[in-house]
């Protein structure tokens, strides 16, 4: 999965390094300045053609432009700072990044929490249940318990 917030930062960094404006970059790529702004804010993604042209223009590989080799660094005080939310959740589930789930669970939306709990229930994540239980809502506890014969 690609973190388009990080890609946007990479585009901004390289554009500024070339000392050009969003208007200048848009003109070179035959797109609007608003589209460049969306890319840089992480709310939009460049097309394949634009990625290729950006790669050539910035003299960097597509892998570097898409931040594919970058380490994922999360701030435990706000795990979503500087990253797309779904990218963070999927990175946790796929164990590309390690966080203390019971201590960051409060930062997640109800849907994100259920995604984490589903992965835990399916054995994709190891979480200390004694630390997790006090942080769960009654419905989340019910979900975790569902299907178990006996629970201690």
Protein described:
The structure is a single chain. The protein is mainly α. The protein folds into two domains: 4-65, 434 Repressor (Amino-terminal Domain) (Orthogonal Bundle), CATH 1.10.260.40; 85-145, no CATH class. 55% of the residues lie in helices and 0% in strands. It has ten helices and no strands. The model has no long low-confidence stretch (mean pLDDT 92).
SSE layout and pairings?
Elements: H1 4-17, H2 22-29, H3 33-41, H4 48-58, H5 62-65, H6 85-93, H7 101-104, H8 110-121, H9 129-132, H10 138-145
Helix pairs in contact: 1-3, 2-3, 6-8
CATH class annotation of the largest domain: Mainly Alpha
Using only C-alpha atoms, the radius of gyration works out to: 20 Å
User: For this structure, what is the CATH homologous superfamily of the largest domain?
Assistant: lambda repressor-like DNA-binding domains
- What helical percentage do the residues reach? 40-55%
**Helix-strand makeup class:** mainly alpha
Provide a concise account of the structure shown.
This protein is 55% helix and 0% strand.
Q: What are the key terms here?
A:
mainly alpha, elongated, 10 helices, 152 residues, 2 domains
